[in-house]
């Protein structure tokens, strides 16, 4: 037993010395995640969450750098560059959750993908044999799976142990202990387990090994047959389009991309088997797969450009188009290049991803901004809404046009194009929109729609007319006399929390997936006793005042009052919307202002 313990401890010591930067970033991510749960103040919580994001990104980045340094040396220099990149990433992210936009989300998602792609080829930029590259990634794939299993058992075991102690011995642990334990072990624990599996790094991972029988069976008899069924369905759909001579539906592009990416993954998994004569099934699929993609690529580009020509570029459409171009490059590379190597797949995708993020003028974000600016100008011109370059909000327009303009304003404001947007705003609305565009970005969409006084329901849009309800109040001056505290929540699609003296005030949406059916206000006392007020009945009652002939019905004031513990509350809303999904309520509100005083 002592010998076994010494063996494990010796290996642990070896892992710490071999992968210090990987473990450091994992520890930073784990501790930051735990601290973020404990912090009450929203802005401080987000600063710590940023650190967790940077740490999580650093795990894969530093592991890739370690693989590269094991091949070429210069470990210290490469790790310094990696750390500098993570510091840049931390300061790139905004300082508060209110400033966080979907653009930041796209960047985070793209960098996570790129960092994992970097791991796959970082140690193989030289002319190492292709089989070594395949063995390295095959072993990584297996180790990731094993890490998931071991981490799941570890987390479940520890959480159940804490739960048993809590319930059996009446310790009454804080409920936050469970998510904190799960996050800490899931991040730091999984990283350490993964490194133990990879032990000596690239030299161990690239060694020859037998082809795993379970992987062989899964790929040959499950994955490839499913892909053949899938491509048959796509070909029948393509035939339907040709027969009916109709444009393809937008989501078909995602189906084609899924088939293509999964198909390429399947080919990578069976790469060593494709030359074995006994594996004719694999050999045939390897030869025909890229040819089956050619007609689908035509369908893919038609579907993509149908959306782009109608609505312009957005970041998701840009990335889908870029993936289509990359896929086309891969197809023709493997069809026409005699000495094709599978290393081309991750390396080329990495290059395309970097291009999309940083290439001047034509990167995803610059392209989307230019495109949506052009789209907005065209909509305003087409509907004759511009008078001396300013929007005429008094002109009668269809509600669908108002919604489209509002969506463009929201999109561009999220991308810091306030100066461009303010050029279209007349003087009578300028001061209001300056404040909204700069400080209350969640209200941009509703304020644009509200500003159009004469909007009519689109006759052809019956579903929208039936499903939509909306009321708004233009009141912005609130009587705060005799009230002690004022809280403003601009985004209440998430749970918000503020300190009210010794009490905790929380606004909590009632939701099922992405559907919001109402809202609750909780007030937790210092003794952990919580009293709640359900705003949902009040919100529904206000929505009953909706006028079907208007996009949103104006009301003089939208407010309600109630008591919780020793406090009296008055809550104002600027807008309430019920955009039903399959006849189910989907209620959203804008700009909740809460006034509080002691009873």
Overview of this protein structure:
- α6 packs antiparallel against α7, α10 crosses α12 and α15 packs antiparallel against α18.
- A hairpin with a 2-residue loop joins β1 and β2.
- The protein is globular, with a radius of gyration of 28 Å.
- The protein is built from 20 helices and 14 strands.
- The protein is of the alpha+beta class and 599 residues long.
- The protein folds into 4 domains: 196 residues, no CATH class; 145 residues; 92 residues, no CATH class; 131 residues, no CATH class.
- Pfam families: DUF4153 (PF13687).
- It comes from Cloacibacterium normanense.
Ordered list of secondary-structure elements with their pairings:
Elements: H1 2-18, H2 20-38, H3 42-72, H4 75-92, H5 102-121, H6 130-169, H7 177-198, H8 202-205, H9 213-244, H10 252-269, H11 280-311, H12 315-336, H13 344-358, H14 364-382, E1 386-387, E2 390-391, E3 397-398, H15 399-414, H16 418-422, H17 427-439, H18 444-451, E4 455-456, H19 462-467, E5 468-472, E6 485-489, E7 496-500, E8 503-512, E9 515-524, E10 530-534, H20 536-543, E11 553-554, E12 559-564, E13 567-579, E14 587-598
Parallel strand pairs: 3-4, 5-11
Antiparallel strand pairs: 1-2, 5-13, 6-14, 7-8, 8-9, 9-10, 12-13, 13-14
Helix pairs in contact: 2-3, 2-7, 3-4, 3-5, 5-13, 6-7, 9-10, 9-11, 10-11, 10-12, 11-12, 12-13, 14-15, 15-18
Transmembrane segments: 21-39, 45-64, 76-93, 105-125, 140-165, 177-197, 217-238, 250-268, 288-306, 318-337, 344-362
InterPro entries: DUF4153
Pfam family, one: DUF4153
């Amino acid at each position: 037993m002592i010998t076994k313990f010494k063996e494990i401890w010796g290996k642990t010591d070896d892992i710490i010395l071999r992968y210090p930067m990987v473990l450091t970033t994992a520890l930073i991510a784990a501790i930051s995640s735990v601290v973020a749960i404990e912090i009450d103040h929203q802005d401080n919580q987000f600063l710590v969450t940023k650190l967790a994001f940077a740490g999580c990104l650093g795990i894969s980045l530093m592991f890739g750098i370690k693989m590269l340094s094991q091949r070429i040396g210069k470990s210290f220099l490469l790790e310094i560059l990696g750390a500098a990149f993570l510091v840049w990433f931390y300061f790139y992210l905004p300082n508060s959750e209110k400033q966080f936009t979907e653009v930041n989300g796209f960047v985070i998602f793209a960098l996570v993908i790129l960092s994992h792609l970097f791991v796959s080829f970082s140690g193989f930029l030289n002319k190492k044999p292709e089989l070594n590259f395949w063995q390295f990634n095959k072993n990584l794939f297996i180790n990731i799976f094993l890490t998931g299993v071991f981490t799941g058992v570890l987390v479940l075991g520890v959480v159940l142990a804490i739960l048993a102690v809590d319930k059996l011995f009446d310790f009454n642990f804080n409920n936050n202990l469970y998510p904190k334990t799960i996050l800490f072990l899931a991040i730091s624990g999984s990283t350490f387990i993964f490194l133990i599996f990879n032990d000596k790094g690239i030299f161990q991972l690239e060694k020859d090994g037998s082809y795993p029988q379970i992987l062989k069976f899964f790929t040959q008899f499950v994955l490839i047959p499913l892909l053949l069924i899938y491509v048959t369905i796509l070909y029948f759909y393509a035939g339907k389009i040709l027969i009916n001579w109709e444009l393809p539906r937008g989501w078909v592009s995602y189906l084609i991309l899924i088939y293509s990416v999964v198909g390429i993954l399947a080919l990578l998994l069976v790469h060593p088997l494709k030359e074995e004569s006994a594996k004719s099934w694999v050999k045939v699929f390897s030869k025909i797969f890229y040819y089956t993609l050619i007609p689908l690529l035509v369908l893919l580009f038609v579907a993509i450009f149908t959306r782009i020509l109608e609505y312009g570029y957005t970041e998701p459409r840009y990335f889908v188009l870029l993936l289509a171009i990359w896929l086309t490059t891969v197809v023709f590379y493997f069809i026409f290049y005699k000495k094709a190597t599978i290393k081309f797949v991750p390396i080329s995708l990495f290059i395309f991803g970097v291009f999309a993020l940083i290439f001047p003028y034509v990167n995803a974000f610059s392209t989307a901004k230019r495109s949506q600016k052009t789209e907005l100008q065209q909509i305003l011109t087409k509907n004759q809404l511009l008078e001396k370059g300013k929007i005429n909000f008094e002109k009668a327009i269809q509600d669908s046009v108002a919604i489209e303009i509002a969506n463009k304003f929201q999109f561009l404001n999220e991308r810091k194009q306030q100066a461009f947007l303010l050029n279209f705003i007349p003087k009578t609305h300028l001061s209001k929109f300056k404040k909204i565009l700069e400080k209350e970005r969640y209200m941009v969409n509703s304020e644009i729609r509200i500003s159009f006084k004469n909007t009519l329901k689109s006759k052809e849009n019956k579903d929208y007319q039936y499903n939509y309800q909306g009321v708004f109040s233009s009141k912005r001056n609130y009587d705060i006399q005799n009230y002690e505290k004022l809280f403003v929540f601009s985004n209440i699609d998430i749970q918000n929390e503020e300190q009210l003296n010794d009490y905790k005030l929380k606004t909590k949406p009632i939701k099922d997936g992405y559907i919001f059916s109402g809202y609750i206000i909780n007030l937790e006392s210092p003794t952990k006793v919580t009293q709640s007020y359900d705003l949902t009945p009040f919100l529904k009652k206000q929505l009953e005042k909706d006028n079907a002939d208007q996009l949103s019905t104006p009301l003089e004031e939208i407010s309600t009052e109630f008591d919780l513990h020793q406090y009296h509350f008055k809550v104002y809303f600027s807008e309430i919307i019920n955009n039903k999904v399959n006849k189910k309520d989907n209620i959203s509100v804008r700009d909740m202002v809460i006034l509080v005083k002691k009873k």
